Amino acid sequence: MEHISIWPVLVLALIHAFGSKLRFLGGVPRSIWLSAAGGTSVAYVFLYLFPALGEGQAQVQRAFPGESFLRHHVYIMALLGLTAFYGLERAVVQSKQQNEKTAGENKASAGVFWLHMASFGVYNALIGYLLFQREEGTTQQLILFSTAMGLHFLVNDFGLLSHHQERYKKAGRWVLVAALIIGWSIGYLLVLSHTLIVLLVAFIGGGVILNVLKEELPEEHESRFWAFVLGAAAYAILLLSLTS
To answer: Is residue 1 assigned to a domain?
Structure first.
């Protein structure tokens, strides 16, 4: 079927549009379904994305030859992705703390909110573009990637809702929906080299790890470790059985 990835993109867009309205996933202690979703997406990164990146490293190194400290380009990109989203998370938390002191409001400033949305917009656009590119692979690869990203989007939605509340409901989620569709649509107009796609996938992988763990680790979230482990284990078994 031509452009089969339009269906996963539409599903992911619906998750952003309406996922935050699933009230049974909110609150404290953390929903077992969100913890399981986080475990699933992390399992996908470690057992599917990163091994594929290892295979792509040789091509990346030929395209960007460098000194010995640059011989692991793809993992540097993964580290950059993790670091970038860690920095964003700290900016949001500090802005909320500052507003709590000065205005008694437990939310980030408008400027930090839009910076957060812009950053996640770029993140979503990259994922949308990668979905389009997944059409070159097998349908199985497309489904595995889409499933992991869909569950990851649920985790992101509730994290962003917790930070930004009504701002996210009224505007933020629609920014992310639009970014996802725009990224997928760019696939029609722009064909990136395989080398650059490998680097983008590495960046996304680092971002996924940080965005999941930042929701699971804080003590106040009362996360369900066992649900995270079950989600990771179940998807790991599925991936290993399909790729062995």
So the answer is: no
CA distance 190 to 207: 23
pLDDT in tens, 37-74: 999 999 999 998 888 777 777 777 776 666 555 567 78
Residue pair 78/203 in contact by the 8 Å Cβ criterion: yes
Number of domains in the chain: 1
- 22 within a domain of the structure (yes/no): no
CA distances from 70 to 10, 75, 77, 148 (A): 38, 10, 11, 29
Radius of gyration of the chain measured on its C-alpha atoms: 18
Could you tell me if 199 and 77 are in contact, meaning their C-beta atoms sit under 8 angstroms apart?
yes
Find the DSSP H helices in 32-109.
Answer: 32-44, 50-63, 73-102
What is the DSSP code string of 128-187?
HHHHHHGGGS-HHHHHHHHHHHHHHHHHHHHHHHHHHTHHIIIIIHHHHHHHHHHHHHHH
Residue 107 lies in a domain: yes
Residue 55's domain comprises 6-16+32-243
Any domain includes 23: no
Is the entire prediction scored with pTM above 0.70? yes
